[in-house]
Amino acid sequence: MSRKEQHDDKLIEELAYHYREIIRLVGEDPEREGLVKTPIRAAKAIVDITAGYRKNPLEIARKAIFEHAGSRIVIVKDIEFYSVCEHHILPFFGKVSVGYIPKGKMIGLSKLARIVDCYARRLQVQERLTAEVCRLLTEALPNDGVIVSCTAEHLCMKMRGVEKQDSSTTTFDYTGRFESEPALREEFIRLLEH
User: Fold this and answer.
1) Which of 111, 156, 172, 175 could form a disulfide with 90 if both were Cys (CB 3.0 to 4.6 A apart)?
2) Is the pLDDT reported for residue 127 higher than 80?
3) Reduced DSSP (H G I as helix, E B as strand, rest coil) percent helix, strand, coil of the chain, to 5
4) pTM beyond 0.85
5) Active site residue: 86, 127, 139, 186, which one?
6) How far is CA 105 from CA 74, 75, 113, 168, in A?
7) 38-49 vs 3-25: helix axis angle to the nearest 10?
8) Is 86 a catalytic residue?
9) Cα–chain center distance at 105
10) Which of 123, 121, 126 minimizes the C-alpha distance to 94?
């Protein structure tokens, strides 16, 4: 067994202990038939949900940057993501769209989705997720501007608190020419709608 596998097993075992205690504290019997395996399942789930902490988004980006001479704007729309709100440990999920203006280089399209997943699979807030994706691409990829849009639904607003079932939140972040040229931001938004 590798050191990483030993670490993961120890982490899962420790998390399962705490989930067992949470089950007990909310008034359930963790030894009840339907709950016996729940702590280990929940532990494995939270390890998967937070896998972004164990990945380096800059390394992901740098593995697939290629020469590119054209394109005024490159857009990848509707990258689905699932994350967990750091305030309530409840899911939020939605879609991220990324646009950038190449400056002699381009990034492999699948890497954009991997970068989104890397940041989404952490305890997160939508505003920071949007900004982190934008900042990473600005740093990793030669460009004249990056723009990121994120629209999500938050179970912390649907299941508890205000309980607003039809609400969603949209956040934007942008750099370079998208910051200095409002017409480029408008073009990005218009292209997202088609």
Assistant:
1) 156
2) yes
3) 50, 25, 25
4) yes
5) 86
6) 11, 14, 18, 34
7) 120
8) yes
9) 24
10) 126
